[in-house]
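Help wanted!
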Amino acid sequence: MPTNLDIQLEASGSASVIVILKDSKAATISGLKRYFRHAETSQQTALLESLSVHTGGGGRRRRPTAPPAMRVYPALGLAFGTVDRKGLAALRKEKKHISGIHSAPVFSLIHPVRSAAVATPTQKVTWGINALDIPKLWAKGFTGKGILVGHLDTGADGKHPALKGAIKLFAEFDDLGAPVNPVPAAHDTGEHGTHTAGTIAGRSVAGKAIGVAPGADLACAIVIEGGNVVARVLGGMNWAVEQKVRILSMSLGLRGFDPAWEPLTAVLRQKGILPVFAVGNEGPGTSRSPGNYDDVLSVGAIDKNLLVADFSSSQKFTRPKNPLVPQLVAPGVGVISAKPGGGYQEMDGTSMATPHIAGLAALLMSAKPTKTADEVEKAIYASCQMQPGMLQSRANRGVPNAIRALDLL
Amino acid sequence: MPTQSQQSSDPKVPKAVQSALEKARKNHSELALILQLRGSGAKPVPSPETTERLAQALTDRATAQSGHRANRMNVFRELGSFVVLGKADFLAHLVAQPEVASVKLNESHPSSVEPIRPVRTGPPSEDGWVDIDS
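Answered by r_m:
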């Protein structure tokens, strides 16, 4: 049965295609280029421009006067171009480098080019990304581009295909919180950090998307494992503030309530940084610091049925502001993300829920760059909805929704 | 040197820190403590410049009072805090300074700060992915 592409080729002799790449290596790209021919229509020019604006793939906002034969969008794991019948046949044989070929959307004057372009090809996303309606923000062109997210954890594997280009800054801290010099290449001392970093800002690879904000930049630091001391975390927090991160994602904490860190979260707030911290995995009636402070966006975990996970911590405090933690819940069971050395793995925990919200905040900040951390947090809170069977004592505000949060911002 | 009773009556010095100081004194060993400086007015912590100046001034003061120096120190300028590795006598004087708001052990045992470890890890399952379309 002929596909849309075949019909289009039959009618006009050429077709615009979106190619889902298995990798974005230079050798792969240059090998594939020969199958494309130069685009000539204004619709293609408009689409190219749209992709450039939304993904940064072209890096320029000017209307391109002579569109290239093929354009690659590494953050999305896509290439776009025009092929004839021979080119398409050749592309279809490149199974080693390509996981899918789709007909590019044809835009009319009525329908906005911007919103359809990014999300058009079929791709796989994690269930968590889907549950928060994140692809609807991508479809509007918001990827977290230009937003620096602090990520303090066990480090992150900078060689993982999904994290290549995502880690803008990296640091490691010793037992007294001093930076290790020379700065090592981005690596993970365990596997926790690669997983959480992938959820915040992992890039699409071969049509699979694990990152909520695939255009955001990460400032990753090793502060935990190999010496679980407070000074390492403080060193990382201090560094993150110096790097001017807009969001700080931490999936770590001290068991119980320890007020010693309160001035530090106050500093983050004062500097306009949104602290997004995990609440803990010890179940009802428990929580961890600093995730249980009243000025932190603390995150609990839900499963695929949108029910609060048994392990997800929750606790009520006797204080006027935000007495109940976590502030909201997010996907934290069966979360697929990056595995050090390559590939993916699933993990369960509030540590996995937290980077979903850090990524969501990055998307919203990229959509409305002038909005403050407090305003973004407020919109996220207001977007939350309780799900059937959910108890407020466990889920607090419930599950946020990306598109609703954007509307409320 | 601050007396035992002065230390124990100081609410900013938790029992765990007191015990660790006593143990370090007894064993003639060193200890690392994290000190949070007092903020003022609407500022939760002192400015980066004040933090650096105060950290130096307080350790100088404690050195003058105890006769010992910090072995190593690291200042968290943006956070209004610093960590000091030193002898118990020196540290006891340091934590007693009025500019210090709170003290914490830079401890390294299971009840300390730790990653919130996943409750389960495994290979990705097919239903963990969702197809999206335009």
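OP: Thanks! One thing I noticed: Strands of chain B lie at 30-37, 72-76, 81-87, 100-105, 114-115, 120-122, 129-132.
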